[in-house]
Amino acid sequence: MASNMLPPDYTPSDDEDFMNPIMQEFFRQRLTEWKSELLRESGQTLQNMQTTTSQEADIADRASVESERALELRTRDRERKLISKIDDALRSIETGDYGYCEDTGEPIGVRRLIARPIATLSIEAQERHERMEKTHRDD
Fold this sequence. Notes:
Elements: H1 21-51, H2 59-95, H3 110-115, H4 123-137
């Protein structure tokens, strides 16, 4: 579907057929824009890290720079994982699986997908999954 077919100011709702072509295009665009933003930020970070040298004379300054760099790298790693989940979501739009719970096959729900477009579980399945994790973690 061409992006110009998306009505201006369109927001998916529970009143329309779940994952109809317009809704799919809405989420495809949203995911693609999110990925582009993450890649742009990542490129800026790499540029900053290359131009910032750690030739600080003061040991405290050098430690501060290294600490900032480590935080930056952790952030980028989280974003890399997020980009992978966005790619998975985009692939699931192509296959027609997007928006359906991996556990139950039921629709995840429009509001949840707007809030978290990479969601793969319904709220109920996510809560069940988290309860199971907590139970096993406490062992």
